[in-house]
Specification:
The complex is a heterodimer.
Chain A (H helix, E strand, L loop, with lengths): L2 E5 L2 E3 L5 E8 L8 E6 L5 E7 L6 E3 L7 E6 L4 E6 L8 E8 L2 E2 L4 E2 L2 E4 L3 E5 L2
Parallel strand pairs in A: 2-13
Antiparallel strand pairs in A: 1-3, 3-8, 4-5, 4-9, 5-6, 7-8, 9-12, 9-13, 10-11
Chain B lengths: L3 E4 L2 E4 L4 E8 L7 E6 L6 E5 L3 E2 L7 E6 L2 E7 L8 E6 L5 E2 L3 E5 L1
Parallel strand pairs in B: 2-11
Antiparallel strand pairs in B: 1-3, 3-8, 4-5, 4-9, 5-6, 7-8, 9-10, 9-11
Classes of the chains: A mainly beta, B mainly beta.
Amino acid sequence: QVLLVESGGGVVQPGRSLRLSCEASGFTFSSYGMHWVRQAPGKGLEWVAVVSDDGTYKYYADSVQGRFTISKDISKNKLYLQMNSLRAEDTAVYYCAKVGEYCTATTCYTPFDDWGQGTLVTVSS
Amino acid sequence: DIQMTQSPSSLSASVGDRVIITCRASQNIDNYLSWYQQKPGKAPSLLIYAGSSLRSGVPSRFSGSGSGTDFTLTISGLQPEDFATYYCQQSYNPYTFGQGTKLEIK
C-alpha cells in the first residue's frame, strides 16, 4: 500500500532555511505528481506546492512563491520542500500528498489521494 | 484565486443522524471538487472526488453532489467514527481548500 513518511521538521529562527523530505513507497513514484500541504496550529488546510510526475513542472501558492522550492528525486523515491526566508506564519504541520488519477472517458480528476503523517515546522526566535 | 466557503463551520449531531455540509466556490469549478475527512492529530483522508464519486473503501453512507459552484457532502446514518472535521477542495485552478466543518457529537 502507499506509504508517505515526512521528515525534517523542527524549530528554526525567522529568516533561516529548512528542507523537508517525504519518502514514498508502495507505488511507482515516477508516475505521479506530488503536493505539499500545510496546516497551521488549530487552522485549516493550505495547499503549498505541486510537482509533476517527472519533476519538471512546478507550481506554488502565492504565499510561498519565490521562497520555497519543491523537487523530487525519482532515484531515491523522495520528495523535497526547500524552505528559505522562513517567517512566523510558515509555522505549521507540513504534509506530503500523492496526486490521484481518476479518469473517465473524457476527463481526469486529480484529488490528493494519499497523505503522509506530517512534520511540524515551528518558526520562532 | 478561487475561494471555497463551507457551511456550517461547526455542527452538532447524534449517532444515526443525517447531516449535510455545503461548499460554495467563488466561480465555476465544474465538478473538480473533492471532500476530505480529518480526525484530530491525523492526516486528512480522501472521501469523494469529482463532486460525487466515492473513493474505494469509503462507506456508502457518505455521498456528494453538485456541480458548478454549489456542492454538498451528505452523511446518512452518522457513526461514532464520523465525528471529525471535513474539508472541501477544488482542483480547477489551481488548488484551494474550504475552511473546514467540525462535526461534533451532540
